[in-house]
Amino acid sequence: MSSPSEYAIPHDPQEEARGVLAVADDGIHVKAVSVLTAEPIMRLLLAAEGLEPPSAIAFPQAWRAFQRFCAIPAIDRDDGASFQCDILTEGEAVAEIRLVRQLSGVSSDSDWTQSVVVQFLHSRPPAYVEPCEIWSSDCPDFRNFVETVESLPAFDHAWYHYPDNALLCVVDPDEE
Predict the structure, then answer these.
(1) What angle do CA 139, 140, 143 make, to 5 degrees?
(2) Which of 12, 27, 108, 111 is least buried, going by the fewest C-beta atoms within 10 A?
(3) How far is it between the farthest Cα atoms of the chain?
(4) Chain centroid to CA 81: how far?
(5) pTM (2 decimals)?
(6) What spatial distance separates the first Cα and last Cα of the chain, rounded to whole Å?
(7) What gap in Å lies between CA 49 and CA 52, rounded to an integer?
(8) Dist. CA 145–CA 111, nearest whole Å
(9) What is the Cα–Cα distance from 49 to 10, expressed in whole angstroms?
(10) pLDDT computed for residue 108 by the predictor
(11) Beta strands in 48-175 (DSSP E)
């Protein structure tokens, strides 16, 4: 299996100058992720798993892509990864399961934070699926984060049940 740094993405000379991309004879390679490149890199990793948003996104492949995405170092500040589940109860119950990586960017005149979110909606979730929010910073290391997430009932449900809807988006956490 290829490492995350071996996935090619479109060339942007400004990002290359910042050290995010490396140009080689066989293409452009991801060296680091920034707030500006995070969403296209995650989209590329999903495509490498055979998933091309906005079409259907299957959770098992998205989880693998998300782990590779989180393995790419952040160029500025990495605020962590998160697995989140909310139960929305207006009308028919819906489990909203999110894979989140939050990054902060720093420039000479401002700082900003964005989250890349892969969201899955599951109607009529079973009672054992409960709200939760786990951040990688809550765990001793990323491996423990993965093990903790994979032990959750919401993860189990997402793994074995195809979502009613899924999407990839970028969110400003200050505007949620």
Answers:
(1) 80
(2) 108
(3) 55
(4) 7
(5) 0.80
(6) 36
(7) 9
(8) 27
(9) 18
(10) 58
(11) 77-88, 94-106, 111-123, 132-135, 165-171
Sign of CA dihedral 8, 13, 19, 20: negative
- 19 φ, ψ (degrees, to nearest 5): 90, 15
Identify which of 63, 37, 39 has the alpha carbon closest to the alpha carbon of residue 49. Answer: 63
CB 149 within 8 A of CB 138: no
Classify burial at 121, counting beta carbons within 10 Å of its beta carbon; exposed 0-12, middle 13-18, buried 19 or more: middle
Residue 8 token pair: 């090619």
Write down the residue that tokens 């991801």 correspond to. Answer: 30
Euclidean distance between CA atoms 51 and 78, whole angstroms:
25
| Token couple for 35 | 């707030």
Q: Give me the torsion for CA of 5, 11, 13, 19, rounded to 10°.
A: 0
Cβ–Cβ < 8 Å for 57, 165: no
DSSP string over 32-43: -B-TTTHHHHHH
